[in-house]
Amino acid sequence: MNTRTLKIRTKERSSEYVVEIGSGLLPETGSWLQSALGGRTRIAIVSNDTVFGLYGETVADSLEDSGFRTEVFLVPDGEEFKSLSNAEKALEFFSGARLTRNDCIVALGGGVVGDLAGFAASIYLRGVRFFNIPTTLLAMIDASIGGKTGVNTSFGKNLTGTFHQPSGVLTDVSTLETLDPRDFRAGLYEAVKQAAVSGGELLEDIRAFLNENADAGRAERLAELVFRQVSFKASIVEQDALESAERSDSRSRKVLNFGHTTAHALEKVTDYSYFNHGEAVGYGIIAASEISKRLEICPSDSIDLLNDVVRGVGVLPDASSISITDVLGAIERDKKASESSVQWILLEDIGRPVIVSASEIPPNVIRESLEHAISRRSNG
Ligand SMILES: NC(=O)c1ccc[n+]([C@@H]2O[C@H](COP(=O)([O-])OP(=O)(O)OC[C@H]3O[C@@H](n4cnc5c(N)ncnc54)[C@H](O)[C@@H]3O)[C@@H](O)[C@H]2O)c1
Ligand SMILES: [Zn+2]
How does pLDDT run across 260-293, given as a tens digit for each residue? Predict the structure, then answer.
């Protein structure tokens, strides 16, 4: 398979970084980093037990073979370990390994590892380079690019973090073969989110992928899907890297939060232990679409199409016992400090997102749309 290459430039950074997407790339990690870094650099690999057990040796051997000295920092597997205390442990580890500003961090894993490693890299010695090797679909299409890093704290998920663009991303879709199907679906829900705000082509990619069940050519199709998703995210991030608070146009980075107003609230009211993030996004897509439909700003056949694709990804965990009042409370508390009112990303059509303040939406429309979304399973 050919490797697809994509360059991402942001106004805030003088340089650009390259995302390489292909299959069977991990054994090439050493030569990939050599071309990016030259030699003689030390590398701290940040990963978790699960991913490092599967792919750590391949990556570390490849780096050592290319002349890099590697150190390995592992965190336990789970969202709860994306914490300030683990970021501090990572910093202590880098310091103990005498990493200098010329050295770098490599994140090997899903979004949890990437967010934590990127955060630690952004504050260690006021910022060292970091490279992402995403191993979940969600991290490949979303978390590994765009430079948002962070940890969860007692006052909120992802509310503590930095913008620190990676210096390069190596995306090997063959690692998805070992991913739990539930985690794979989570990535697909996030892909549907991006398709909803980007337009028809990405939605078609996902539909085609879901409809073709043969294993033959799966890696190729996945690489193409990831490439197109990353291209779209890059096109948004390149012109609004810092998610500017003043912007509310259809190309604002905020539109990537489609479905996330509800998703974050659902995760919160279930203590982050019932849904995985992508599943909560699946519900969020249905809720935001329903609001758009009830406000009569979006054609209902577009909403039906979108719901069909969400349904096609798989059955979402039952949410019917969750209290809508709790969800509404969590939505209100989650709003960004810079905002006087919750902002909903809605659709005027697929590919035409619009940012609407909650104060402009009748409260019963929000409540009934949430009820509609969570009172039924996605296949119901
Ligand atoms: N920075 C961003 O822009 C951004 C965007 C979206 C999501 N996120 C964050 O990403 C996180 C979710 O990421 P995720 O869905 O990748 O979760 P995750 O990192 O927890 O990975 C999911 C599970 O898959 C396992 N795993 C990873 N790769 C594997 C592989 N190849 N084979 C087998 N198992 C593997 C992990 O160990 C974990 O158990 C959340 O914390 C979310 O806030 C960040
Ligand atoms: Zn998300």
Answer: 999 999 999 999 889 999 999 999 999 999 999 9
Question: What's residue 299's pLDDT?
Answer: 96
pLDDT (0 to 100) of residue 375: 85
Q: What is the pLDDT of residue 10?
A: 81
Which residues in the chain show pLDDT less than 70?
Answer: 12-15, 39, 213-214, 336-339, 376-380
Per the CB < 8 A criterion, the answer to whether 205 and 113 are in contact is no
**Closest to 47 (Cα-Cα) out of 154, 184, 175:** 175
CA distances from 201 to 88, 194, 273 (A): 42, 11, 34
pLDDT at 19: 97
Tell which atom from ligand 1 comes closest to the C-alpha of 55.
Answer: 31
Residue type, 173: V
The residues that bridge with 104 in the sheet, in sequence order, are: 43, 129
| Residue bearing the CA closest to ligand 1, atom 34 | 179
Largest CA distance in the chain: 62
Domain layout of the chain by residue ranges: 4-179, 182-374
Q: What is the pLDDT of residue 7?
A: 95
Nearest by Cα to 145 from 120, 174, 172, 115: 115
pLDDT for res 333: 84
Based on the number of CB atoms within 10 Å of its own CB, is 232 exposed (0-12), middle (13-18) or buried (19 or more)? buried
Q: How far is the CA of 114 from the centre of ligand 1 (A)?
A: 8
The CA 154 to ligand 1 mean position distance, Å, reads: 20
CA-CA-CA-CA torsion sign (75, 80, 86, 87) = positive
Rounded distance from Cα 110 to ligand 1 centre (Å): 3
Q: Any idea which residue has 């849904």 for tokens? A: 275
Q: Rounded distance, CA 84 to CA 154, Å?
A: 10
Nearest alpha carbon to residue 8 among 178, 126, 144, 181: 144
The fold of the 182-374 domain, in CATH, is: Dehydroquinate synthase-like, alpha domain (1.20.1090)
Q: Is the dihedral of CA 225, 231, 343, 290 positive or negative?
A: negative
Which CATH number is 4-179 given?
3.40.50.1970
